[in-house]
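Protocol step 4 of 6.
Sequence for Sulfite oxidase-like oxidoreductase (Pannus brasiliensis CCIBt3594) entered exactly as in the expression construct, tag removed. Do not edit the line below.
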Amino acid sequence: MLGKFFQKPEPSESDRVPPGQYLTKGFPVLTYGDTPRVNTEEWSFRVYGKVITPKTFTWSEFMALPRSKFTADFHCVTRWSKLDVTWTGIKVTDFLNSIELDPGATHVMQHCYGGYTTNLTLEEFAREDNFFAFELFDKPLPADHGGPLRLVVPHLYAWKSSKWINGLEFLDREELGFWERNGYHRRGEPWAEERYSGF
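Step 5 output, structure tokens:
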């Protein structure tokens, strides 16, 4: 299995591959449950909770936000990594400029088509290197990889980069998402191997 689908990193890549990870030769798809199929005409994105004014974006409204190109490494908790993944999307920081948060907001819950949720602190969410992706390798993001839109949080394991995202709930306290309630770590930092819950 290792030689066919995965490989150990070369010495020149070792500083980019977290402990316990192998490089994938493809881009594996791991999904719990069915894959939602949502077209952009029906898609919407709700922002609510600890915000001054709740808002629901249409696809065209979301796509009117500034676009950027990104290249980032991608690390899955199931021990594979893919280096130099190229995406097109919208910086989280640019998105945050389009809404007004309540001063009491400290955490955010990602909500997705299909019912998936995952949590982040606001500090982790608002990092400059995080983005919403709608293209993968210059093509529309496939549904299997989270299309039409997913969040990408490169510094954490990939379950924090929710596929099929359709809403953000800003909170004044920590709440746990799907995998966090089912034994995964609250944060999920690859270099610290924060795979599973320690509480």
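Step 6, annotate. DSSP finds five helices and twelve strands in the chain.
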